[in-house]
Amino acid sequence: MNQAKIQHAFEEFLKTRALKLTPQRRRIFARVFATHEHFSAETLYGWMRAEEGSRVSRATVYRTLSLLVEGNFMETLDPGTGELLYEHVLGHRHHDHLVCTACGRIEEFTDERIEAFQREVALRKGFTLQYHNLRLFGSCASCTRKRARRPLGKANA
Predict the structure, then answer these.
(1) Is the pLDDT of residue 124 over 90?
(2) What domain range includes position 60?
């Protein structure tokens, strides 16, 4: 699905809420769908402030992100740091996440065996699956190596 179609779908979604695609929402939408990384609302707000264009308030960033999530244009990811991260999902294949609790690194992965097993469990339980997300939390390879090299008796630094 291309960005113009997604924007049209977002505009139609906004109409169901008696809202319009304002220049500020249009800028936020364009920036969100221009990135392929996970980002926080504060990061997006920083991008908006650094770029030329109509002024976008912090509140508008948060409200627009909320609308994008509500309309299933984006998903949130809670890496356990106290700050939600966002990613757009339209036009992307389903994927799951590995989240490093030490450094916050996020790796995306897909595994058809996991997907098949989840469908099988839902079927076995008589559950009609609509969507799902899988997030695995632990230490990335780099943080695991750093921890292994740390001298004994040293506190987590």
Answers:
(1) yes
(2) 1-92
